C-alpha cells in the first residue's frame, strides 16, 4: 500500500511539472507572437519624472532612443515597450548633455547593445556626461555628429530630418557672432529634428529655447508637424508663439515631473497651447504617452 501511494505521488509531481512546463511554453509563444512587429510607427514619451526619454519603434522595427531622463526609470519604459528578450537599440540620440537627459543613458549603455549614438560634443563638464562619453568609447559605439540639413534614414519609411544645431557657416550667414555651443547654456545646443513617416510628422525639440526657435524661423526651416514635443518641459521660454503657429500641431506632449521644483510646465506656455487649440498631454498627469501611426493617420494609444 505505501508503494502505491508513493507511485501516485510521483505521478502527481510529474504531471504538475509537465503542466507548468506547458504553461511556460504557451506563455513564451504568446509573448513572442504579441511582440512581433505590427508595421506601425510607435513613439513612447516615457514617464521618467523631470526629464526626457522618447523611444521610437519604426514600422520596420528599428529602435531609437532619444534621451534617457535621469536615473534608471527609462529602463522600465524600455522593458514595457520592447520584448523581454530584446536588449538592443539601433540608435541613441542625446539631444544635449544635461543630467535629466543623459543620466539614464548611462544605465541604458550598461544594459543594452547599442549600434550607434548621436550627440553634439559641446564643451560641457559634468560627471554624467563624462561617464556617458567614456562608456561610448569603452564599448566602441560609433558616434554620428549631425547638423542642420542632415537626414538620418531610420528605415525605408522613416527618417529624422535635422533642423538644429546649425553649422558655423550658417550662423555667420544669419549674423550670429556669439558661439551658441560654447557650453555656457547647453540648451542652446539641443539637437532638434522632425521625425517623418509618410504623411505623419513629429517634432522633437530637446530643450531648445525660444531663442533657437526664432532662429529656425529666420532660417526658414520650420514646417508643420502633427505632434510637438514641447521644449524644456514646458518652461516659460520653451515655446515661441510664432514657432507654434508655424508648426500648427494637433497634439503637444510635455515631458515633466510631478510637482517639480522648477514649476514646469509654466502657465504662460500652457496658455499659448490652449489658445492655439492644441491638445495637451503631460507625463506627470498621463504617465507614458504612446503615439501610433500607420504613416497616414495617427492616434494616441
For the CA atoms, what is the radius of gyration?
23 Å
Helix content: 25-40%
Globular, elongated, flat, extended or rod-shaped: what is the shape? globular
Helices, by number, come to 9
Q: Give the count of structural domains.
A: 2
Topology:
Blueprint: H1 2-34, E1 41-45, E2 54-57, E3 63-66, H2 73-81, E4 88-89, E5 91-94, H3 99-111, E6 113-114, E7 117-119, H4 127-138, E8 143-144, E9 151-153, E10 158-164, H5 168-173, E11 192-197, E12 200-204, H6 210-219, E13 227-229, H7 241-247, E14 251-254, H8 267-275, E15 279-282, H9 283-286, E16 289-293, E17 298-300
Parallel strand pairs: 3-5, 4-6, 5-7, 7-8, 12-13, 13-14, 14-15
Antiparallel strand pairs: 1-2, 1-16, 2-3, 9-10, 10-11, 11-12, 16-17
Helix pairs in contact: 3-4
Please describe what this structure looks like.
The chain folds into 2 domains: 1-34; 40-300, Metallo-beta-lactamase, Chain A, CATH 3.60.15.10. The chain is α/β, with parallel strands linked by helices. It has helices at residues 2-34, 73-81, 99-111, 127-138, 168-173, 210-219, 241-247, 267-275, 283-286, and strands spanning 41-45, 54-57, 63-66, 88-89, 91-94, 113-114, 117-119, 143-144, 151-153, 158-164, 192-197, 200-204, 227-229, 251-254, 279-282, 289-293, 298-300. The protein is built from 9 helices and 17 strands. The strands form 3 sheets. An 8-stranded mixed beta sheet has the order 8-7-5-3-2-1-16-17, covered by helices on one side. A 7-stranded mixed beta sheet has the order 9-10-11-12-13-14-15. The protein has a two-stranded parallel ribbon with strand order 4-6. The longest helix has 33 residues, at 2-34. It starts with a helix and ends with a strand.
